Task: structure prediction
Amino acid sequence: MVQPQTVKREAFKHRDGFVILEDVTIGVCDPCGNQYYSAAILHAVHAVTTGAKAPERTEQIPVSHLESA
Result:
């Protein structure tokens, strides 16, 4: 059964990087933990990625390569 759960931050990957939504309610499957997003959430991510809506702020994310053993 999928239950609504409000999360502090949820990251969404898109072709040009990531968008993070804060204080968003998502659906979480009790047995398996899969996450489900409403159309409104996906539309909000799309609006930010296309520039239709400006982000509230931009944060830097550290990036590194994993060294081969």
About this structure: DSSP finds one helix and three strands in the chain. The first helix runs from residue 39 to 50. Helices lie at 39-50.
